[in-house]
């Protein structure tokens, strides 16, 4: 009679009755997933949650189950949006480009042989800071970085100097960038030549050619709450802490669930 009054089929009612205990079945696992999810400030996907469950709590949980629980309990990850603005800088006649020697060969298995570099901007307290990074494509480790409140040449030249201390040798190391003003500058080209490094550049207007560093910047802006920094010194400290975390503590699914430093050591032992 109640099914007839509410216009519900009897089969539908019994199907609901059969599965009515499902929320209770998943609830304990949901609490574990939820704790890791909010500990990561709602920025962890199912892969990171699976790794964190094992490393932090020694809990082994199938990634499909984690994904199902996240959907079931509406644990939605914040998705970064594409930045519609791109600075365009005119190059003087003395600036030179070079060929794309990397040619999207992002699958590398030898540490410190192929590097990727670029600059991004970080808005804070109605101002901008600029972050220059050099990343090892094989291990995804950040091997050099520098920050400034300007876009002068010492931003990228300082990054190269910081990189030197992390490389046993820079000879024949390929460093890939876009065709930005800094990387076509004679000062930069000469410094790379002095280090016996090989320079490579993306095709004009094609950011996919330098995808590894673009991906890193995207994750950094997802993971770091930098916009609430009041001073440049505070921002610099926050970025420095993230670089240490990224290299030493941030596990990555495609690095055999290791951190960049762990994966680098792993590759070196396999050579």
Short descriptors:
10 helices, Nucleotidyltransferase, domain 5, 271 residues, five-stranded mixed β-sheet, alpha/beta, 2 domains
**Unreliable stretches, pLDDT < 50, 5 or more residues?**
none
Gyration radius (Cα, Å) is 24 Å
Which percent range describes the beta-strand content?
5-15%
The CATH architecture of the largest domain: 2-Layer Sandwich
CATH hierarchy class name of the largest domain? Alpha Beta
Strands side by side in the biggest sheet: 3-2-1-4-5
What's the name of the CATH homologous superfamily of the largest domain? Ribonuclease H-like superfamily/Ribonuclease H
Largest sheet: 5 strands, mixed
How many structural domains in the coordinates?
2
User: How helical, in percent, are the residues?
Assistant: 40-55%
Provide structural commentary.
The protein has 271 residues and is an alpha/beta fold. The protein folds into two domains: 2-72, no CATH class; 114-270, 2-Layer Sandwich (Nucleotidyltransferase, domain 5), CATH 3.30.420. Helices cover 42% and strands 13% of the residues. The protein is built from ten helices and five strands. The chain has helices spanning 2-6, 10-18, 22-39, 46-57, 63-72, 154-164, 186-194, 211-223, 232-248, 260-270, and strands at residues 114-124, 127-136, 142-148, 174-177, 198-201. It has a five-stranded mixed beta sheet, sandwiched between helices. The longest helix is centred in the N-terminal third of the chain and has 18 residues, at 22-39. It is elongated, with a radius of gyration of 24 Å. It starts with a helix and ends with a helix.
């Amino acid at each position: 009679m109640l099914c007839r009054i509410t216009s519900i089929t009897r089969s539908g009612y019994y199907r609901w009755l059969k599965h009515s205990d499902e929320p209770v079945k998943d609830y304990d696992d949901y609490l574990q997933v939820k704790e890791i999810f909010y500990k990561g400030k709602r920025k962890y996907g199912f892969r990171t949650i699976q790794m964190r469950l094992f490393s932090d709590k020694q809990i082994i949980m199938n990634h499909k189950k984690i994904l199902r629980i996240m959907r079931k309990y509406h644990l939605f990850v914040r998705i970064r949006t594409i930045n519609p603005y791109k600075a365009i800088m005119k190059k003087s006649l003395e600036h030179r480009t070079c060929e794309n020697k990397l040619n999207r060969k992002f699958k590398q298995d030898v540490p410190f042989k192929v590097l990727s570099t670029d600059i991004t901007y970080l808005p804070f307290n109605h101002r901008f800071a600029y972050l220059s990074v050099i990343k090892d494509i094989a291990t995804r480790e950040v091997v050099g970085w520098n920050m400034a409140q300007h876009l002068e040449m010492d931003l990228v030249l300082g990054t190269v100097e910081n990189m030197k201390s992390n490389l046993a040798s820079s000879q024949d190391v390929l460093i890939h960038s876009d065709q930005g003003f800094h990387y076509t500058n004679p000062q930069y080209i000469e410094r790379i030549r002095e280090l016996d490094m090989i320079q490579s550049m993306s095709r004009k207007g094609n950011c996919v050619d330098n995808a590894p560093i673009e991906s890193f910047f995207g994750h950094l802006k997802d993971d770091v709450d930098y916009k609430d920094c009041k001073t440049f010194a505070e921002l610099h400290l926050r970025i420095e802490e993230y670089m240490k975390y990224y290299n030493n503590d941030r596990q990555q699914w495609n690095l055999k669930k290791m951190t960049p430093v762990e994966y680098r050591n792993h590759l070196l032992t396999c050579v």
